[in-house]
Amino acid sequence: MRQLQAYAPTVLGILRIVAALLFIEHGAAKLLNFPVSEMHPPAFSLPWIAGVLEIVGGTLVLIGLWTRPAAFILSGLMAAAYWMAHAPQSFFPVNNGGDAAILFCFVFLYLVFAGPGAFALDNKRA
Predict the structure, then answer these.
(1) pLDDT band at residue 125, thresholds of 50, 70 and 90?
(2) How many domains would you assign to the chain?
(3) From which domain of life does this come (predicted)?
(4) CA 48, 54, 55, 56 torsion-angle sign
């Protein structure tokens, strides 16, 4: 098991990058209609603000710049999204479409405590 521990920073960096790319996609679908989406929130509405945070915060997490504060904000965003948009529809995440929100919330919360891992600009700043 100690052999695997040597790869922990690399795998953490990969987790951060993949999660950020998927997260940016949600914001791009809302604001840029790419990939094509049925969501077209009006400017300055809560979903529009979420889209901005998804793109900007997701980009910061992607490049590993100010990872901990960005991940903290994004974790809170996903907790709020779950309780405001998904939980009222059903108690069960499989029925309310909130699975992704829960996973993003906890992946970003983990990054707050674990840091960015490998391939991050934060590592150059330290």
Answers:
(1) confident
(2) 1
(3) Bacteria
(4) positive
CB burial class (10 A; 0-12, 13-18, 19+) of residue 126?
exposed
Tens of pLDDT along 41-77? 999 999 999 999 999 999 999 999 999 999 999 999 9
Counting Cα atoms < 13 Å in the Cβ hemisphere of 87 gives 9
In a domain, 8, yes or no: yes
Please report whether residue 80 resides in a domain.
yes
Got the DSSP string for 53-94?
A: HHHHHHHHHHHTSSHHHHHHHHHHHHHHHIIIIIGGG-SSHH
Q: Residue 114: what are its φ and ψ, rounded to 5°?
A: -85, -20
The answer for residues whose C-beta is within 8 angstroms of residue 2's C-beta and 6 or more apart is none
16 token code pair: 């951060």
Residue 126 lies in a domain: no
